[in-house]
Amino acid sequence: MDKANSETSASQSSNDLRPVKVWDISIRVFHWSLALLIGFLWWSGTEGVEMENHVLAGYAVLALVSYRIIWGILGSYHARFTSFIRSPLSTLKAIPDVLSVRSDSHYTGHNPVGGWMVVALLLILLAQGISGLGTTDDIFIDGPLVEYLEEEMVALFSDWHTTLPDYLIALVLLHLAAVFYHDAVKRERLIRSMITGIKYTTVRDSSSELPVKRFLLVTGGLSLLGWWLLKDILV
Ligand code: HEM
Ligand code: HEM
């Protein structure tokens, strides 16, 4: 599916809207698990409670983000980075359209601005999760790398781990503001699409059904890697 086809004119009437499978089931499970885990991690981290579960939830976020990055290369059509990451210039040009009150449902997957937001969220989550591995609270809980790192490195990781959440929360709030703007003002039901996987669009676009064999290969490989990395820590 070429770009011109998936960013067609918005002038077509809403009667032309037809359903397209845009988010495969793995993207939807990834997304809602992530939202729940981040809520828990924020609460447990800032309150300093349930810290053993905080560490487990942190590993789960690292696993989810690793999956999403691999799925961004090997996954279903709309999950792939190449289907939604545009050059900085095209992204700048898309801003008026994305901000305008009228619907831009001619973007079947993420619009160009949303595409960069996805990259920013994934990178900050990755950085937050990795920094946790070298973080200590100096009392009960150490990340698994703390015993192998120099003291200054642990101080640096711990510093990042307590600073990055402010930026993470700012990005999440911006993400939510954008999603609700699309829903309430532009009348595009993005939240419903992230639940059902279906988007209504004027474009004849590729469907994003789950490629089952590839999914099993990727999750099987990641599970083996996770088991190998964590087997000594979790028993
Ligand atoms: C993306 C995943 C994660 C998020 C969003 C997150 C979030 C947070 C937050 C908000 C805090 C409180 C910071 C503060 O005191 O201001 C915290 C503390 C902490 N986190 Fe995480 N965390 C994540 C992953 C991890 C991982 C993977 C580990 C360890 C393996 C970990 C270990 C810790 C420790 C030990 C503290 C206590 C630090 C202190 O008291 O100074 N976190 N985390
Ligand atoms: C901590 C909370 C959250 C995080 C970290 C987060 C992160 C993300 C990420 C990474 C994506 C890209 C999905 C992908 O391509 O794999 C995304 C998309 C999306 N998120 Fe969230 N999200 C959070 C909370 C929420 C909440 C609470 C809602 C709804 C009320 C929501 C609604 C959406 C929607 C509708 C999309 C798809 C946007 C589009 O169609 O372009 N998110 N989110």
TrEMBL record:
<feature type="transmembrane region" description="Helical">
    <location>
        <begin position="25"/>
        <end position="44"/>
    </location>
</feature>
<dbReference type="GO" id="GO:0005886">
    <property type="term" value="C:plasma membrane"/>
</dbReference>
<protein>
    <submittedName>
        <fullName>Cytochrome b/b6 domain-containing protein</fullName>
    </submittedName>
</protein>
<dbReference type="GO" id="GO:0020037">
    <property type="term" value="F:heme binding"/>
</dbReference>
<feature type="transmembrane region" description="Helical">
    <location>
        <begin position="56"/>
        <end position="77"/>
    </location>
</feature>
<dbReference type="InterPro" id="IPR011577">
    <property type="entry name" value="Cyt_b561_bac/Ni-Hgenase"/>
</dbReference>
<keyword id="KW-0472">Membrane</keyword>
<dbReference type="InterPro" id="IPR051542">
    <property type="entry name" value="Hydrogenase_cytochrome"/>
</dbReference>
<keyword id="KW-1003">Cell membrane</keyword>
<dbReference type="GO" id="GO:0022904">
    <property type="term" value="P:respiratory electron transport chain"/>
</dbReference>
<feature type="transmembrane region" description="Helical">
    <location>
        <begin position="167"/>
        <end position="185"/>
    </location>
</feature>
<feature type="transmembrane region" description="Helical">
    <location>
        <begin position="113"/>
        <end position="130"/>
    </location>
</feature>
<keyword id="KW-0812">Transmembrane</keyword>
<keyword id="KW-1133">Transmembrane helix</keyword>
<dbReference type="GO" id="GO:0009055">
    <property type="term" value="F:electron transfer activity"/>
</dbReference>
<feature type="domain" description="Cytochrome b561 bacterial/Ni-hydrogenase">
    <location>
        <begin position="22"/>
        <end position="197"/>
    </location>
</feature>
<dbReference type="Pfam" id="PF01292">
    <property type="entry name" value="Ni_hydr_CYTB"/>
</dbReference>
<dbReference type="InterPro" id="IPR016174">
    <property type="entry name" value="Di-haem_cyt_TM"/>
</dbReference>
